[in-house]
């Protein structure tokens, strides 16, 4: 090749013609999708900060500060929690399809939340029936029970069988045990826990699925799997093991300073909602 040919080949115009096909056709790369597994997704809400899952001792400390430093009363928080639960139930299981609700209440604050939830569900068009095997002999719980009676909410004295529950109810609200629970399940509640384990009805658990360890989740004697878990104040460690379809956070009452102290990173509640999906 002559020197003149090399010069022509190396000229800017020639190089442009040679390179033009490479530069005019852009290569489109598909972005790589990041697939979160269900467990990972549950750690993120609101502004994508990680929502803190509380240990049993942390949950107790947060509650105590609400009562002491912030001077919330037990019945005040119980009313807010139970109302939040009723709203979460209504979002997932509307009364048009799940009006007949068996509300199973335990002896402590979780049971009180259940009584409040039943009262509000009755005002939302549901037909709740309360099973309260071991009522707490304290004025607060007696008042909550009385309110339900005055609202013409029925109660049953015996735990229904799996067959009876299937024919009479559309949904079970599990409000037996809270975050102070430690296995095993006591004798008074074995039958109702067994019902919830064996039934095919959807179950909405308040804060802690009954029989679960607050931090470890399922234990050998209880493999209860609710369709809806309503965490209160902040989710507990056991919620990491929740595999149901609906996980909501209820309790739009935690003061900002308390959230910062425990680094709760709670999600933003949309609009005027009382619960938020996690």
Automatic annotation (TrEMBL):
<keyword id="KW-0521">NADP</keyword>
<keyword id="KW-0479">Metal-binding</keyword>
<feature type="binding site">
    <location>
        <begin position="109"/>
        <end position="113"/>
    </location>
    <ligand>
        <name>(6S)-NADPHX</name>
    </ligand>
</feature>
<feature type="binding site">
    <location>
        <position position="110"/>
    </location>
    <ligand>
        <name>K(+)</name>
    </ligand>
</feature>
<feature type="binding site">
    <location>
        <position position="207"/>
    </location>
    <ligand>
        <name>(6S)-NADPHX</name>
    </ligand>
</feature>
<feature type="binding site">
    <location>
        <position position="174"/>
    </location>
    <ligand>
        <name>K(+)</name>
    </ligand>
</feature>
<dbReference type="InterPro" id="IPR036652">
    <property type="entry name" value="YjeF_N_dom_sf"/>
</dbReference>
<keyword id="KW-0413">Isomerase</keyword>
<feature type="binding site">
    <location>
        <begin position="178"/>
        <end position="184"/>
    </location>
    <ligand>
        <name>(6S)-NADPHX</name>
    </ligand>
</feature>
<comment type="similarity">
    <text>Belongs to the NnrE/AIBP family.</text>
</comment>
<protein>
    <recommendedName>
        <fullName>NAD(P)H-hydrate epimerase</fullName>
        <ecNumber>5.1.99.6</ecNumber>
    </recommendedName>
</protein>
<dbReference type="InterPro" id="IPR032976">
    <property type="entry name" value="YJEFN_prot_NAXE-like"/>
</dbReference>
<comment type="function">
    <text>Catalyzes the epimerization of the S- and R-forms of NAD(P)HX, a damaged form of NAD(P)H that is a result of enzymatic or heat-dependent hydration. This is a prerequisite for the S-specific NAD(P)H-hydrate dehydratase to allow the repair of both epimers of NAD(P)HX.</text>
</comment>
<dbReference type="Pfam" id="PF03853">
    <property type="entry name" value="YjeF_N"/>
</dbReference>
<keyword id="KW-0547">Nucleotide-binding</keyword>
<feature type="binding site">
    <location>
        <position position="210"/>
    </location>
    <ligand>
        <name>K(+)</name>
    </ligand>
</feature>
<keyword id="KW-0630">Potassium</keyword>
<dbReference type="GO" id="GO:0046872">
    <property type="term" value="F:metal ion binding"/>
</dbReference>
<dbReference type="InterPro" id="IPR004443">
    <property type="entry name" value="YjeF_N_dom"/>
</dbReference>
<feature type="domain" description="YjeF N-terminal">
    <location>
        <begin position="59"/>
        <end position="266"/>
    </location>
</feature>
<dbReference type="GO" id="GO:0000166">
    <property type="term" value="F:nucleotide binding"/>
</dbReference>
<dbReference type="GO" id="GO:0052856">
    <property type="term" value="F:NAD(P)HX epimerase activity"/>
</dbReference>
<keyword id="KW-0520">NAD</keyword>
<dbReference type="GO" id="GO:0005739">
    <property type="term" value="C:mitochondrion"/>
</dbReference>
